[in-house]
Design goal:
Blueprint lengths: L1 E4 L3 E3 L2 E3 L3 E7 L10 E6 L4 E6 L3 E5 L5 E6 L6 E6 L4 E7 L4 E6 L4 E6 L4 E2 L4 E2 L4 E7 L4 E6 L4 E6 L14 E5 L7 E4 L9 E8 L7 E8 L6 E2 L6 E3 L3 E7 L6 E6 L4 E5 L6 E5 L4 E7 L4 E6 L4 E6 L6 E7 L6 E5 L5 E6 L4 E6 L3
Antiparallel strand pairs: 1-34, 2-3, 4-5, 5-6, 6-9, 7-8, 10-11, 11-12, 12-13, 12-14, 15-16, 16-17, 17-18, 19-20, 20-21, 21-22, 21-23, 24-25, 25-26, 26-27, 28-29, 29-30, 30-31, 32-33, 33-34
């Protein structure tokens, strides 16, 4: 495991810890060679850091023929830092567009970052209150943001940035959903005209009962998002705080993590059927490698990570490892190198961890 200290930042006369919060990964950006990177939100510094996560790089001869690999001296280092809005939290990447979308938790905005040129693509876009989670539909260029305090999701169309004269500003469209939405994942092949179904983690309140965790299905196939009329409702045993989409199984499923239930829940939006597997104590985030079907959860209270095998039937937790840290972790897995990148906020560092097969 590689532990990479995350740089501090200066605000006036004060030096702040970066407080890395969330992470997203891309292997090959638009018109760029293959070169895996991780982009980490720094909630204490109002920025994102772009980290080189390529252990090796391809080598080509003068005719352009591939000849092998060479070790990468910059592996694990910060390549660049780009400013965002206030207290950035969730992040999603679109390798096809070369863009990152960042939820600025305190500002109520989303930053659109040009990751190729390390700059903001447009001015920050106003969304709902306390935006937290983000997902992007690669096929349509729709970015969806969960606004935790306003109980809404916002959708931003990124495609105007691809025009011959790129847009200089973007707007969002918002709809109401259930309470306290936090995380989002997208199936690009469900929804209207198979143009995208987003599933958002949220809560429902009932008089005299504990809050019920729910998975709201949002149709993002049209210009305006709408609660899906075709997807079946999903229910979790406790409040879900993270979600991923798994295209490696059939039918394709979503997996949500419930922090207070110590569970990962598999959800089929076609039927509403769910099933659970236990992980460590208080899992706060999860990531999936769609190539292997492996899921990693980061369990903050037990200070462990759990490895789940989604290919087995039923899916099961295979291994658990100890890891020191905090209640705030973000994690993503590179699908080709099978390296997990973990944002460890308590220790102000980023961990790069080879996921066991």
């Amino acid at each position: 495991m590689l532990a990479q200290p995350h740089p501090a930042c200066s605000t006036g006369t004060t030096t702040q810890n970066a407080q890395p919060s969330s992470v997203a990964i891309a292997d090959q950006l638009v018109r760029q060679p293959f070169h895996p990177i991780a982009v980490v939100t720094n909630s204490g510094c109002d920025s994102v850091s772009v980290i080189d996560i390529a252990p090796q790089l391809p080598v080509y001869d003068t005719s352009g023929n591939f000849t092998g690999f060479t070790s990468n001296a910059q592996f694990g280092t910060v390549l660049n830092t780009v400013p965002t809005g206030s207290a950035p939290q969730g992040i999603a990447l679109s390798p096809r567009l070369g863009l990152a979308v960042v939820a600025n938790n305190s500002a109520g905005t989303a930053s659109i970052i040009d990751i190729v040129n390390f700059k903001q693509a447009v001015t920050d876009v106003t969304v709902g209150t306390t935006p937290t989670g983000v997902a992007i539909n690669e096929g349509t260029g729709a970015a969806v943001i969960a606004n935790t305090a306003s109980n809404t999701v916002s959708q931003i169309n990124l495609t105007p940035l691809l025009a011959s004269t790129p847009a200089t500003s973007l707007t969002s469209t918002s709809i109401s959903i259930d309470l306290g939405p936090i995380a989002i994942a997208i199936d690009p092949d469900r929804g209207t005209n198979n143009r995208g179904l987003a599933v958002v983690t949220a809560l429902q309140l009932f008089s005299g009962q504990a809050p019920l965790g729910v998975l709201d299905a949002i149709d993002i196939g049209n210009a305006t998002p709408a609660k899906s009329t075709s997807a079946a409702a999903g229910v979790t045993a406790a409040a879900p705080t993270g979600i991923v989409f798994d295209s490696s199984v059939s039918p394709a499923l979503f997996y949500a993590v419930s922090s207070l239930g110590n569970l990962v829940t598999a959800y089929n939006p076609d039927t509403g059927l769910t099933s659970n597997v236990r992980v460590g104590i208080n899992p706060t985030s999860l990531a999936i490698n769609p190539q292997t079907g492996g899921i990693m959860t980061v369990n903050s209270t037990s200070q462990t990570i759990s490895i789940i095998d989604t290919i087995s039937n039923p899916f099961k937790t295979r291994r658990t490892f100890g890891i020191g840290g905090s209640a705030q972790f973000g994690v993503a897995i590179d699908q080709f190198t099978n390296l997990a990148v973990i944002a460890d906020q308590a220790n102000n560092r980023v961990l790069i961890f080879p996921v066991p097969n």
